[in-house]
Specification:
Blueprint lengths: L1 H22 L5 H26 L8
């Protein structure tokens, strides 16, 4: 249950961030690309890093 809430929160954060970046008229195209990269990939990289430290390989297998 808690993982479902966390996934929904993460997806909501990503969608909200994308909408805010795309609606901002004062940003240039390159700035929008950078902000979209930050909004989408930082949570993904953080989650991947967390999972990598939580689940360790044992004898070459999970």
């Amino acid at each position: 249950m808690i993982y479902t809430i966390l996934i929904l929160f993460l997806l909501g954060y990503m969608i909200y961030g994308l909408v805010q970046v795309l609606k901002n008229k004062s940003l240039t195209l390159m700035s929008k690309v950078v902000w979209i990269f930050i909004v989408v990939f930082l949570p993904v990289l953080g989650t991947a890093g967390y999972l990598r430290t939580t689940f360790k390989e044992r004898h070459g297998r999970w």
